[in-house]
Amino acid sequence: MHLLKTALLRSLYAALLVSTSVALPTVDASRAAADSPAKSTGLSVKKVESPRGWKIYDNGKLFAGYIEYQNGFPIVYPVIGPGGHAMTRDFPMKKGTEGEKLDHDHHRSLWFTHGEVNGIDFWIDDAHEGTGRIVQTSGEATVDAKNDAVVITTENDWNDAEGKRQLSDSRRTTFHTEDGKRIIDFEVVLRATDGDVNFGDTKEGSFGIRVAGTMKVDSKLGGKITNAEGLTNSDAWAKKSNWVNYSGPVDNQTVGMSVFYHPSSFAAPCSWHVRTYGLFAANPFGHYHFNGGDKTEGITLKDGETMAIRCRVVLYQGDFDAEATEKAFAKYAAEKPEAL
Question: Which keywords belong to this entry (predicted)?
Fold first, then answer.
């Protein structure tokens, strides 16, 4: 009897250990990290209240911030490269950074929106009368321990100035590293939840980045734009391409970022609204600004339909390597996206 009781206790204790070890990885990182510092190894995340969102860490060092709402829409700011250099512009969130012009205050680090949605301007910020607002309705951040990544998933409503919803979206932003590079995967599914949605024919969109001021071509410090076809600087503007790279100096160090447009995305390969003054945007909706001729009727997403757009941002230290970038894009393009 005593031996049987001892065996039962050991079995219960072993079961408890197993259940505990399985449960730990499923803890919501946005809750756990809110009360503890970033982990010293791997990718980790911490929930913050001002501005509301999350901070993402790579081996205890800041990688990026995700801000739930910044004057009209969610943004990723800051964006820090693998060498510790800020890869996107600080203005207007912060003023006084070297090489930055105080222009286009709606160009806020890294974001996704569009200039004409049902005739409403979501590209400009909410300081302007009549503009739209993208409002997060729910969100969570988790650590994918298997792939050493931080995954932020959110639901968002696109509302007009009076608060009437025009459509909604689901977003997944994944932060991870590979071969010494920092990578941000952005995926969005646009949902026509409230009737047909028209995405207007305009250059003002859509997956946007404003690079660090010293990186821009116009700073004449060595900044350069290169697309997959080898076109550079102003010649790359408006062209369709699988990817575009923007490189240049930050803190006197050569850095760069490549943006890939996944072939499963709407209208792939897309046109690029990439400028020598530092704007860097993948735009699948624009036509006449890029190609000339009359303005088209745009793209209409019928009531109940969805549209997916997926981009990868690769942040690196050192010189741009076109051959390596093409290989990295091919690997990304071969990945089958998970449902969102």
Answer: Signal
Domains in the chain, CATH or no CATH each: 26-333 (2.70.98)
Identify the band that residue 96 occupies on the pLDDT scale cut at 50, 70 and 90.
Answer: confident
CA dihedral sign, ordered 107, 108, 110, 111 = negative
Of 283, 202, 198, 178, nearest in space to 240 by CA: 283
Q: Is the peptide bond before 249 cis (omega within 30 degrees of 0)?
A: no
Written as one string, the DSSP assignment of 229-265 is: TS-BGGGGTT-B-SEEEEEEEETTEEEEEEEEE-TTS
| Percent of residues, the chain, with pLDDT higher than 70 | 88
Three-class secondary structure of residue 329 per DSSP: helix
| Residues 37, 53: Cα–Cα separation, whole Å | 16
Of the candidate ranges 36-40, 246-250, 291-295, the one whose mean pLDDT is the lowest = 36-40
Report field, pTM of the whole predicted structure over 0.85: yes
